[in-house]
């Protein structure tokens, strides 16, 4: 995960940066720093060691710096005309159009793009604040950036257009702005979590929110309650999803696709078998709808722990995809071997762990590039699996002549829209926490959905069991009337994934029976449904079609997380569960 850190203080801030690197313990391999050394602006690059060691910076009297950690070998920070320093992170969905209009080449990185937009405005006579306002109106997608102009050594600006950024006050009048909630909670005494659209000025005076009309407002910065401890890895990993998905979108979204050797085999595929356990199994179930709809193929989804005991008869043109975050889950390895022994000729591993056992057993490996996942519960690796399976499904559809060029372009456009939709979903935290406050004491819950959102409901129920220790069960909503409705009463709430699609009306009909039995309903929907007595609605982002299951998955991750927080559970290491050990990580 790339990270941004900016510091400004009356004293040398390099020791503080050094501490931050140890706290972050990030798997990024490059650190780029732009700093003021006794008034001169200096740009430095450091290759980071694993495990992370304390960095010793050359002696300097540095009062401000902007640092970025990434896996990109080229600098993400630049100094150019107007003595401007900019560092940005995220995914800009109109990057190519903007880069063309600015004449900077479409291979420019995001910081270069933001800088070019700002410089164009500064050249036209705008102030930096005016330039930021225009820049923010032009950038589409899920971006955040920090910028500094040498003429204003006392402060910096932070601008949040979706990717999380936090501003904090440390001891010794140091002010920090960074992208990691865990880091800021450890370092700062008071923190402001920026909202999308916020522009904040921070530095040697009180941090100020700059309103759209230019008026400055003192930031409300609640004190950090250190006794609450550091937020969990699970939350950090949930919040990382706009970026983990953006990394995959960049890799596979704009005309690039799967490895050539795999693509060469796709046209001849006649069926797909997906093998997995736990959350990876739910990813497989969601993807089965995509393989049917986009690739026109029959699909079989096998629970790894069951598959190995079955008499299987794979077709000679079947594609087996074994899915495992860790690549080390024994059941999935056994299931893959069972398929191979029984004659499956084409095998793919989908894993977050390069070099894992699973990847050594197959013809082709696809990696989810989500970075290390510390929490036992799969979050960012799961949504990355979903995205990769979607890429595989539409590439198969294209290779088999099931999809027109326009349909492939539409599928790719939906990918580009995804990180922003996930970032918007993360902004529903307040509402989801409110639900969790009401739901975490319920012993039993139903989670329901239809079509590709039924496995999303399964994953939501799984998470509630896994981290919140609640007995949650998922059903396809059409099945309620065939048995489960007998259990519904005022003590059994029903959580509903209700995207506004072809199945929506059927679901609303299914829900009438729940209300008739006094069941309380909690609906996640992008439809225009009002909350009424007994029915609470959270409005989900619009604009996704095939990829809608991903944002509902994220919303349910947050619900399970906050239910677990309210119950005081050990969230990152739930009782009786362990994560399979991973090898090296992408
Ligand atoms: C289980 C974990 O043990 O393994 C689940 O509790 C996880 O959270 C499952 O989804 C499968 O793991 P993997 O690494 O094979 O995807």
Automatic annotation (TrEMBL):
The keyword Repeat applies. It holds the Pfam family SIS. The keyword ATP-binding does not apply. It is an enzyme of class 2 (transferase). Its EC number is 2.6.1.16. Residues 262-402, 435-574 form the SIS domain. Transmembrane segments: none annotated. Keywords: Glutamine amidotransferase, Repeat. InterPro entries: GlmS/AgaS_SIS, GlmS/FrlB_SIS, Ntn_hydrolases_N, SIS_dom, SIS_dom_sf. PANTHER family: GLUCOSAMINE--FRUCTOSE-6-PHOSPHATE AMINOTRANSFERASE, ISOMERIZING, GLUTAMINE--FRUCTOSE-6-PHOSPHATE TRANSAMINASE (ISOMERIZING). This is Glutamine--fructose-6-phosphate aminotransferase [isomerizing]. It comes from Deefgea tanakiae.
């Amino acid at each position: 995960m790339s990270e941004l850190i900016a510091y400004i203080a009356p004293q040398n801030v390099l020791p503080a940066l050094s501490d931050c690197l140890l706290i972050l313990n990030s798997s990024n391999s490059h650190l780029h720093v732009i700093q003021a050394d006794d008034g001169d602006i200096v740009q430095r690059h450091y290759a980071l060691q694993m495990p992370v060691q304390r960095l010793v910076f050359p002696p300097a009297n540095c009062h401000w710096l902007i640092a970025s950690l990434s896996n990109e070998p080229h600098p993400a920070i630049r100094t150019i005309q107007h003595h401007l320093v900019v560092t940005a992170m995220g995914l800009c969905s109109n990057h190519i159009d903007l880069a063309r209009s600015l004449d900077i080449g479409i291979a420019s990185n995001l910081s270069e793009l933001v800088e070019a937009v700002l410089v164009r405005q500064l050249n036209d006579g705008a102030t930096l604040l005016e330039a930021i306002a225009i820049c923010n109106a032009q950038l589409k997608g899920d971006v955040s950036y920090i910028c500094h102009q040498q003429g204003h050594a006392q402060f910096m600006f932070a601008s949040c257009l979706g990717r999380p950024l936090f501003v904090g006050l440390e001891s010794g009048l140091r002010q920090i702005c960074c992208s990691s909630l865990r880091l800021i909670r450890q370092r700062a005494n008071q923190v402001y979590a920026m909202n999308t659209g916020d522009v904040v000025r921070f530095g040697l005076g009180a941090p100020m929110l700059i309103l759209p009309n230019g008026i400055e407002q003192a930031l409300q910065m609640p004190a950090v309650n250190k006794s609450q401890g550091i937020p969990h890895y699970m939350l950090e990993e949930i919040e990382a999803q706009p970026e983990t998905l953006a990394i995959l979108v960049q890799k596979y979204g704009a005309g690039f696709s799967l490895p050539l050797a795999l693509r060469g085999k796709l046209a001849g595929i006649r069926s797909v078998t997906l093998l997995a356990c736990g959350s990876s199994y739910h990813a497989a179930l969601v993807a089965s709808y995509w393989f049917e709809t986009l690739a026109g193929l029959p699909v079989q989804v096998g629970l790894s722990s069951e598959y190995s005991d079955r008499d299987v008869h794979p077709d000679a043109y079947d594609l087996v995809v074994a899915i495992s975050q860790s690549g080390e889950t024994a059941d999935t390895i056994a299931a893959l071997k069972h398929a191979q022994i029984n004659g499956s000729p084409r095998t793919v591993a989908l894993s977050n762990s390069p070099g894992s056992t699973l990847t050594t057993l197959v013809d082709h490996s696809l990696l989810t590039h989500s970075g290390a996942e510390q929490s036992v519960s799969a979050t960012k690796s799961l949504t990355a699996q979903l995205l990769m399976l979607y890429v595989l499904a539409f590439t198969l559809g294209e290779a088999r002549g099931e999809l027109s060029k326009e349909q492939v372009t539409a599928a790719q456009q939906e990918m580009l829209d995804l990180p922003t939709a996930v970032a918007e979903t993360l902004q529903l935290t307040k509402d989801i926490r409110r639900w969790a406050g009401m739901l975490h004491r319920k012993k039993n819950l139903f989670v329901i959905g239809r079509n590709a959102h039924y496995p999303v409901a399964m994953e939501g129920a799984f998470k509630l069991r896994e981290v919140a220790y609640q007995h949650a069960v998922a059903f396809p909503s059409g099945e309620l009337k065939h048995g489960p409705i007998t259990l519904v009463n005022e003590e059994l709430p029903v959580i509903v994934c209700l995207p506004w699609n072809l199945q929506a009306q059927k679901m609303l009909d299914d829900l009438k029976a729940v209300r008739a039995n006094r069941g309380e309903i909690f609906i996640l929907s992008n439809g225009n449904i009002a909350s009424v007595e007994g029915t609470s609605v959270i409005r989900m982002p619009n604009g996704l079609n095939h990829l809608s299951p991903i944002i509902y998955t994220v919303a349910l991750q947050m619900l399970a997380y906050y239910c677990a927080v309210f119950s005081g559970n050990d969230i990152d290491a739930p009782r009786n569960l362990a994560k399979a050990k991973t090898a090296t990580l992408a």
